Amino acid sequence: MTWGTGPLPTHLVRGLPTNIGKYLELSEGTRMDKVTLFIIDEQPIFRQGLRQTLSVYDDMEVLGECDPTADVCSIVESLSPDIVLVDVGVRLLRGFDVTRQIATHCPKVAVVVLAPNPDDEQLFRAIKSGAVAFLSKDIPPDKLGGVLKRVGRGEYPINESLLAKPNTARQVLRLFQSFALKDMETLMTPLSPREMEILRYVAEGNPNKRIASALNISEQTIKNHITSIMRKLNANDRTHAVVLAVRQGWLNIEDHSEIPAGDEAVVTR
Q1: What's the mean per-residue pLDDT of the chain?
Q2: CATH says 2-170 is which class?
Q3: Could you report the per-residue pLDDT of 65-82, keeping only the tens digit for each?
């Protein structure tokens, strides 16, 4: 893997997956005066086509590309592009989850969502996920270039998309009204409701086996959720994850989710 005309610097490689080369292709000759881009899409042909489309702009540079199943946050955090383009096609929920993770962990990186069949619901999800622009994958190349240049200047084209969709605008208004009153978790935490539930049990000192019994799921599923929680929060261990969640205000240690004492047999699924 190369960076410019030589090997990728050690400080960029540290912490990345050992198989990153499978997912990532870096371009040559990156210049500091260019708007830097990164592409996330499950279709290699589309990624290559998008690279080719953007190559006509002298003031833009595609740093790399990857599949949404890669360790996206680690890659984006290491390369620090100005803009990440995320496809929310077939794996709809995965695409918006990737968008939310980047917006949460890499706040200086602008995320542009590309949708094959954009609709009001997807626009609403894009706004909740922290995207700065919501575009159709059928967008003409010249218009795409114009939007990316605006995003590079710090603009939020998604605001215009919202103004053109009154029903979605009402949804957003209701969401922010609810947010202002009580529900910060929906917008601010990168964790799912199930992960928050498990983290509350962890905060009370419950072992995996007991949590699994209470939720009627396998112990391995609990382990998988805790691994996901630690990854999303960049936590070193489960205790660190609890501390980070409390510090951010996502978890109140005074709230209790008592698990009844008794048989802790775990359902295997």
Answers
A1: 77
A2: alpha beta
A3: 998 877 888 899 999 999
Distance between CA atoms of residues 33 and 59, nearest Å: 7
Which residue in this structure is represented by tokens 């929906």?
186
Helices (H), 164-261: 166-181, 185-188, 193-203, 208-215, 219-233, 238-247
> Are 112 and 151 in contact, with CB atoms under 8 Å apart?
yes
Q: pLDDT tens-digit profile of 229-257?
A: 988 888 888 888 888 888 777 777 665 55
Q: What is the pLDDT of residue 267?
A: 39
3-state secondary structure 67-97: CCCCCHHHHHHHHCCCEEEEECCCCHHHHHH
Cβ-contact 120, 168 below 8 angstroms: yes
Q: Is the dihedral of CA 76, 79, 82, 85 positive or negative?
A: negative
Q: Where are the domains of the chain?
A: 2-170, 189-247
Tell me phi and psi for residue 115, to 5 degrees.
Answer: -120, 130
Cα-Cα end-to-end distance for the chain: 41
Task: Give dist(CA 69, CA 27) in Å, integer.
Answer: 21
CATH of domain 189-247: 1.10.10.10
